[in-house]
């Protein structure tokens, strides 16, 4: 009898704790469900993509990366939970400070950051010895600050000097500081910001002028790639980057090579086209229904199968149906964030939720487009699905902020309903 009572007491305590947790969990329930679905997909895909790698480097222990991903997911869910409890007006107050902190961090990363993949993109935290991609922090800081500026300058947004210039300069500075180390991230971030400015009633002429100026270096990059390919055909020789060349020169060479590989293709194992070709093989093997969970073979040949090209592994194992399901998930996420934008009565919260959703969904679409060779290799991850890292944590923080806006919108709507009900009764 005492044992039965203890079991019942334990069940009551667990249910009470769960009920209290659910009561404190607010915001868009659909977004919460999408987060859970994406993290489950992440567990399956990362475990499959890293099985052979873990077996090779950890003497047969294939669960090492799985446990790491579980830890990142649990940590990310806690970040989402606590971030969504904070009133989103706090992010407006902190926006200026966070943005001013992001700028020197980007400058420090550019000159003194950890060099990986020919670019300085990370800083190493001294105590935990973990590398952090400062561009992810800068993206979050930029959208917080941009949402604040847009909300405060709606009356002047059509004016070029007092309105548009005041909201565009943070975008230009941030993108210019990110571009030398990660051009693709800078371009995607700039596109997300311009889309938010368009919705924020910025003058279309001003936006087109900005796009035109941004297209000049892009067209120069494409022209350099075409010229390099033609020179390679006539001379049958591609000149490698010299060791004495500067870091920026090497990065420009990398950009040109990526564009050239995207336009003309390449069978060289040392080029980005090799990754794309392996991704194509994975897609072709997957077919309609896929080869089944854990049965991928391309993961043994595809670099970054657990990170940048994890979408190829998903298609190989779950087929085009699985790939289409992933696109559907991100589009539903965007749709729910647009609903939050429409329902939010305050401009800052509306712009903040929409801007963060734009950058996450555009990043996801760019990652998937690279896999199917619709876009040059970018190096961006698939949000909430690629193997955990600083990008995963900052993605969770962005989603937590979006849910904070949704939670406060629900509270305001609840108060309005109560006031209406009381007025009817009175």
List keywords for this structure.
mainly alpha
Query: How many β strands by DSSP?
Result: 3
User: Are there runs of 5+ residues with pLDDT below 50, and where?
Assistant: 236-244
What gyration radius follows from the Cα positions, in whole Å?
A: 24 Å
How many domains is the backbone divided into?
2
First-residue to last-residue Cα separation? 54 Å
Helix content: over 70%
Main beta sheet strand tally, sense and closure: 3 strands, antiparallel
Give an overview in words.
The protein has helices spanning 2-24, 29-57, 64-85, 89-112, 134-152, 160-178, 183-199, 204-235, 247-264, 272-286, 310-343, 347-371, 390-425; strands at residues 114-116, 119-124, 131-133. It is mainly alpha-helical and 426 residues long. The protein folds into 2 domains: 30-85 and 268-345 and 368-384, no CATH class; 87-264, no CATH class. Strands 1-2-3 form a 3-stranded antiparallel β-sheet. Helix 5 (134-152) runs antiparallel to helix 12 (347-371) and helix 7 crosses helix 12 (347-371). The radius of gyration is 24 Å and the shape is globular.
SSE blueprint:
Layout: H1 2-24, H2 29-57, H3 64-85, H4 89-112, E1 114-116, E2 119-124, E3 131-133, H5 134-152, H6 160-178, H7 183-199, H8 204-235, H9 247-264, H10 272-286, H11 310-343, H12 347-371, H13 390-425
Antiparallel strand pairs: 1-2, 2-3
Helix pairs in contact: 2-3, 2-11, 3-13, 4-5, 4-6, 5-6, 5-7, 5-12, 6-7, 7-12, 8-9, 10-11, 11-12, 12-13
């Amino acid at each position: 009898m005492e044992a039965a009572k203890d079991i019942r007491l334990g069940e009551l305590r667990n249910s009470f704790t769960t009920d209290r947790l659910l009561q404190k969990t607010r915001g868009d329930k659909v977004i919460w469900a999408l987060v859970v679905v994406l993290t489950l997909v992440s567990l399956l895909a990362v475990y499959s993509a890293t099985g052979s790698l873990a077996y090779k480097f950890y003497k047969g222990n294939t669960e090492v990366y799985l446990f790491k991903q579980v830890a990142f997911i649990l940590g990310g869910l806690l970040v989402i939970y606590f971030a969504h409890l904070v009133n989103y007006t706090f992010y407006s107050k902190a926006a200026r400070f966070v943005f001013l902190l992001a700028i020197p961090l980007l400058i420090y990363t550019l000159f003194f950051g950890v060099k990986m993949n020919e670019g300085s993109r990370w800083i190493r935290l001294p105590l935990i010895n973990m590398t952090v991609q400062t561009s992810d922090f800068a993206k979050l800081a930029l959208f917080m600050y941009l949402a604040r500026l847009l909300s405060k300058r709606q009356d002047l947004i059509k004016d070029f000097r007092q309105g548009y210039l005041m909201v565009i300069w943070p975008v230009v500075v941030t993108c210019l500081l990110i571009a030398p180390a990660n051009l693709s991230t800078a371009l995607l971030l700039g596109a997300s910001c311009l889309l938010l400015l368009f919705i924020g009633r910025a003058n279309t002429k001003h936006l087109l002028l900005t796009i035109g100026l941004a297209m000049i270096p892009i067209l120069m990059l494409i022209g350099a790639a075409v010229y390099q390919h033609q020179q390679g055909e006539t001379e049958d020789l591609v000149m490698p980057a010299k060791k004495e060349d500067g870091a920026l020169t090497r990065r420009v060479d990398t950009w040109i090579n990526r564009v050239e590989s995207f336009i003309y293709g390449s069978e060289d194992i040392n080029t980005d086209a090799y990754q794309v070709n392996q991704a194509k093989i994975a897609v072709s093997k997957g077919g309609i229904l896929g080869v089944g969970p854990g049965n991928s073979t391309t993961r043994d040949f595809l670099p970054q199968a657990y990170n940048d090209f994890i979408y190829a592994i998903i298609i190989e194992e779950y087929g085009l149906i699985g790939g289409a399901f992933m696109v559907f998930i991100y589009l539903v996420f965007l749709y729910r964030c647009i609903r939050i934008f429409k329902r939010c009565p305050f401009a800052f919260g509306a712009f903040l939720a929409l801007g963060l959703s734009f950058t996450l969904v555009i990043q996801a679409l760019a990652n998937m487009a690279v896999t199917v060779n619709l876009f040059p290799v970018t190096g961006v991850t698939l949000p909430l699905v690629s193997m955990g890292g600083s990008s995963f944590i900052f993605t969770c923080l962005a989603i937590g902020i979006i849910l904070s806006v949704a939670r406060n919108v629900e509270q305001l709507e609840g108060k309005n309903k109560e006031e209406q009900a009381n007025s009817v009764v009175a």
